């Protein structure tokens, strides 16, 4: 009986401790943020729980604290928690948002909650769920009742997770952001006010803020009267003066001060000038301006979570898997020289005594181990879905991965094949022979199909196959309605090709495991292969798997999708946290779109 009573008391302990937390009042005057009525300078570092293994959440928060931050800003990604309408997950993998916030409080850090519904963040579809794209004429980020109903459902559900963690309830949440950089997209003030009312109705009582570029039109379109003004970024006195002109009744702060920057495939790793950052921080600290470093630690776009940019109808710039961002705390949690520069600045101006920098987490190098081809995608095709013309993935409730389209060529047998539009990377095959690739960026979507040789029977209809990879839904600006696969039609010499078979290839861990469970004959020279290998570990640690010998695809380690790789760079190594590894035997599965021959893989201790 005594043992049962002790166990019951142990279960009640968190509730008891929560009840003992002192409630606080966060508010603002016209010029300052106030905590319990006294001026308070927010010194925030941003990180995203979805991009960080749950095992490392506390370590990364401790790192931010050691750099001098008193607050953590966190985006919450709607599509990470609701992949299908009404099916929410706030428990598995990195999804326990409430636990992340509680860890912030445990480390004596305040929280700025950035829940969207739209967030941008170089995250797939800016955090919006791809199931919205199944609605042919959907309009997002506005008063479209179908979009708004889904957004309100998300807000109401997320509020249940976080409302007890507001500072007024003894928690660490000081403010909640409404939408994100809305003045760069639209001007529907009714929409912003509708979101605010839904949050309030759902029990959110702390103040709100918006975030926009420091330009008149963005601030006019993106801010509402009762919300503090976040500036992306607030770099100088002129930016703050612009905010005051826009709304003189609320304070402004730099809601995104950039110590680093994002990187697209095919570019060099972003390395912003550190002197400019130092100049900005000195201004903010000297003038006692509140700010948030976006990001203090980026983490990783595991799986298919990376987004893309596009600033014209034919432009497409997909983001790399690493979200290292050249941040003060790098992808696997180490402080960089930038970290120590910022730590020294913050300490100099705030005069606070900072905590020690946490010890680095273990890393391992893995000697090269052999891989071998075990199967190909052509042996793993599911039952076809027939349609008059191609339809994108989302119409079949698939938001990520790959999709294959197949038809017979009747009439024209060769010539100029045009894909309208390939979203995002396509391989074209004719009678099983690889012809060419098409990448969406730039609008050059034509492939020359060889015509039948003289003497071939004219009544034989060649089989055309188009294998398409989705590389991330656009996450910013005006071209976010971005379905994956073939979004309209395919023409050959101007003739629209009809009567298609479609094969859904989600390429998740279950699909990859099934494809490699037993060896199957793989065509020697036909791309689209699965490779498999094993290695042994006596101790685990973080590592970077080196894929420079492979071409383009995805990697699974012990069932965990580490993300995309592509030999155009700049990223050739994929981060693998220790939590994905185990002592003893480990398994790696690679699906590559182009690779023909198996090559060895090894593990390194750094990104590049």
What is this entry, summarized?
By secondary structure, the protein is an alpha+beta fold.
Written account of the structure:
α5 (145-162) packs parallel to α6 and α9 packs parallel to α10. The protein has an 8-stranded parallel beta barrel, surrounded by 5 helices. Strands 18-27-19-24-21-22 form a 6-stranded antiparallel beta sheet, with no helix packed on it. The termini are far apart. It has 3 domains: 34-350, TIM Barrel (Alpha-Beta Barrel); 366-376 and 508-604, Jelly Rolls; 389-498, Galactose-binding domain-like (Jelly Rolls, Sandwich). β9, α6 and β10 form a beta-alpha-beta unit. The model is unreliable at 1-13 and 15-20 (pLDDT under 50). It is globular and about 80 Å long. With 608 residues, it is an alpha+beta fold. The relative contact order is 0.12. It is built from 11 helices and 34 strands.
CATH domain fold name of the largest domain: TIM Barrel
Strand order of the largest sheet: 4-5-8-9-10-11-12-13
Number of domains: 3
Assign a percent range to the helix content: 10-25%
Shape label: globular
Distance between the termini: 58 Å
Structure characteristics:
alpha+beta; Jelly Rolls; disordered N terminus; six-stranded antiparallel β-sheet; TIM Barrel
Write the layout of secondary structure elements.
Blueprint: H1 2-20, E1 26-28, E2 33-35, E3 38-39, E4 43-46, H2 57-67, E5 71-75, H3 78-81, E6 82-84, E7 87-88, H4 97-106, E8 110-114, H5 145-162, E9 173-177, H6 189-201, E10 208-212, H7 216-222, E11 228-231, H8 237-246, E12 252-257, H9 274-286, E13 291-293, E14 308-309, E15 317-318, H10 337-350, E16 366-369, E17 371-376, E18 385-387, E19 402-408, E20 415-423, E21 425-430, E22 433-439, E23 446-449, E24 463-469, E25 485-492, E26 495-496, E27 500-505, H11 509-515, E28 529-537, E29 543-546, E30 552-557, E31 560-566, E32 573-576, E33 584-592, E34 601-604
Parallel strand pairs: 4-5, 4-13, 5-8, 8-9, 9-10, 10-11, 11-12, 12-13
Antiparallel strand pairs: 1-2, 2-3, 6-7, 14-15, 16-34, 17-28, 18-27, 19-24, 19-27, 20-23, 20-25, 21-22, 21-24, 25-26, 28-33, 29-32, 29-34, 30-31, 30-33
């Amino acid at each position: 009986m005594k043992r049962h009573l002790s166990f019951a008391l142990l279960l009640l302990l968190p509730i008891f401790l929560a009840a003992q937390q002192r409630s606080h009042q966060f508010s603002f005057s016209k010029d300052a943020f106030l905590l319990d009525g006294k001026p308070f300078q927010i010194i925030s570092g941003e990180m995203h729980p979805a991009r960080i293994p749950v095992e490392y959440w506390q370590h990364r928060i401790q790192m931010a604290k050691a750099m001098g931050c008193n607050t953590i800003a966190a985006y919450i990604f709607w599509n990470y928690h609701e992949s299908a309408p009404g099916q929410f997950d706030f428990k598995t993998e990195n999804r326990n948002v409430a636990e992340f916030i509680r860890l912030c409080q445990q480390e004596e850090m305040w929280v700025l909650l950035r829940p969207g519904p739209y967030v941008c963040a170089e995250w797939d579809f800016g955090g919006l769920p791809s199931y919205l794209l199944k609605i042919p004429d959907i309009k997002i980020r506005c008063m479209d009742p179908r979009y708004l109903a889904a957004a309100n459902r998300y807000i109401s559900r997320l509020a249940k997770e976080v409302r007890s963690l507001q500072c007024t309830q003894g928690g660490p949440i000081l403010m909640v952001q409404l939408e994100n950089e809305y003045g760069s997209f639209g001007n529907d003030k009714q929409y912003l006010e509708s979101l605010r009312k839904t949050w309030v109705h759902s029990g959110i009582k702390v103040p709100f803020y918006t975030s926009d570029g420091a330009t008149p039109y963005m601030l006019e379109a993106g801010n509402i009267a009762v919300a503090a003004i976040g500036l992306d970024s607030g770099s100088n006195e002129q930016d703050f003066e612009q905010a005051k002109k826009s709304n003189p009744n609320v304070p402004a702060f730099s809601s995104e001060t950039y110590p680093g920057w994002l990187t697209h495939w095919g570019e060099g790793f972003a390395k912003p000038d550190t002197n400019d950052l130092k100049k900005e921080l000195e201004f903010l600290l000297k003038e006692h301006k509140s700010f948030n470093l976006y990001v203090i630690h980026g983490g990783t776009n595991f799986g298919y979570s990376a987004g893309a940019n596009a600033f014209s109808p034919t432009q497409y710039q997909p983001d790399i898997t690493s979200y290292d961002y050249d941040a003060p705390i790098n992808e696997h949690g180490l402080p960089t020289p930038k970290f120590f520069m910022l730590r020294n600045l913050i300490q100099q101006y705030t005069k606070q005594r900072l905590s020690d920098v946490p010890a680095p987490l273990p890393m391992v190098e893995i000697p090269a181990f052999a891989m071998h081809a075990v199967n190909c995608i052509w042996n793993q095709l599911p039952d076809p879905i027939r349609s008059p013309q191609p339809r994108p993935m989302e119409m079949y409730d698939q938001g990520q991965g790959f999709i294959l389209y197949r038809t017979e060529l009747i009439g024209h047998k060769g010539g100029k094949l045009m894909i309208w539009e390939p979203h995002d990377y396509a391989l074209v095959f004719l009678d099983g022979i690889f012809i060419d690739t098409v990448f969406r960026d730039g609008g050059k979507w034509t492939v020359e199909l060889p015509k039948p040789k003289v003497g071939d029977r004219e009544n034989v209809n060649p089989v055309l196959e188009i294998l398409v990879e989705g590389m991330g839904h656009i996450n910013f600006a005006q071209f976010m309605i971005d379905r994956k696969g073939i979004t309209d039609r395919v023409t050959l010499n101007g003739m629209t090709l009809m009567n298609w078979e479609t094969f859904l290839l989600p390429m998740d861990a279950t699909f990859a495991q099934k494809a490699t469970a037993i060896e199957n004959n793989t065509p020697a020279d036909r791309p689209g292969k699965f490779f498999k290998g094993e290695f042994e570990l006596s101790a685990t640690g973080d590592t970077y798997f080196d894929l420079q010998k492979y071409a383009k695809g995805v990697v699974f380690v012990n069932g965990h999708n580490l993300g995309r790789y592509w030999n155009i760079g700049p990223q050739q190594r994929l981060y693998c946290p220790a939590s994905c590894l185990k002592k003893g035997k480990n398994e790696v599965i690679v699906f590559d779109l182009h690779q023909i021959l198996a090559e060895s893989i090894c593990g390194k201790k750094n990104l590049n």
